[in-house]
Amino acid sequence: MAISFENALGVHPDALNFRVQRSKVLASNLANVDTPGYLARDLAFESVMKNTSSRVDTPPPQLDVSAKYRVPYQNSKTGNTVELGVEQAKFAQNNMDFQTSLTFMNMKFSGLAKAIEGR
């Protein structure tokens, strides 16, 4: 009997992929904090995961990770919408979410290894 990793791992690989993509977007925002006219972007976890959870017995599609522009809490004179504190907080939260998803993946792999070994 073959093991289907798509069924065994659930949405966790997609969640990890999303977290990597989001960290790239947030790092770009942080790198451009002083660039005049730069517009901050972000990815919505809910919309991406909603698309992946609706698939059943189909090959995994590419994640739709199109970044949306973020509305700033306070406008700047230069037109830059990146707010350093907000970006740092979102980056840190994304890092913790990545670690959580990675922990779930490790637990899944550990469970699969125990099942294969018959423990």
From TrEMBL:
- List the Pfam families: Flg_bb_rod
Its family remark reads: Belongs to the flagella basal body rod proteins family.
Occurrences of domain Flagellar basal body rod protein N-terminal (ranges) = 14-38
* InterPro entries (UniProt xref): Flag_bb_rod_N, Flagellar_basal_body_rod_CS, FlgB
Q: Which GO terms describe its biological process?
A: bacterial-type flagellum-dependent cell motility
What's this protein's name?
Flagellar basal body rod protein FlgB
List cellular component terms (GO).
bacterial-type flagellum basal body, rod
Name the domain of life this protein comes from.
Bacteria
**Record keywords, A-Z:** Bacterial flagellum, Cell projection, Cilium, Flagellum
Instruction: Kindly state the subunit structure of this protein.
Output: The basal body constitutes a major portion of the flagellar organelle and consists of a number of rings mounted on a central rod.
Q: Which gene specifies this protein's sequence? A: flgB
Record function comment: Structural component of flagellum, the bacterial motility apparatus. Part of the rod structure of flagellar basal body.
PROSITE patterns named among the record's database cross-references: FLAGELLA_BB_ROD
Indicate where this protein resides in the cell: Bacterial flagellum basal body
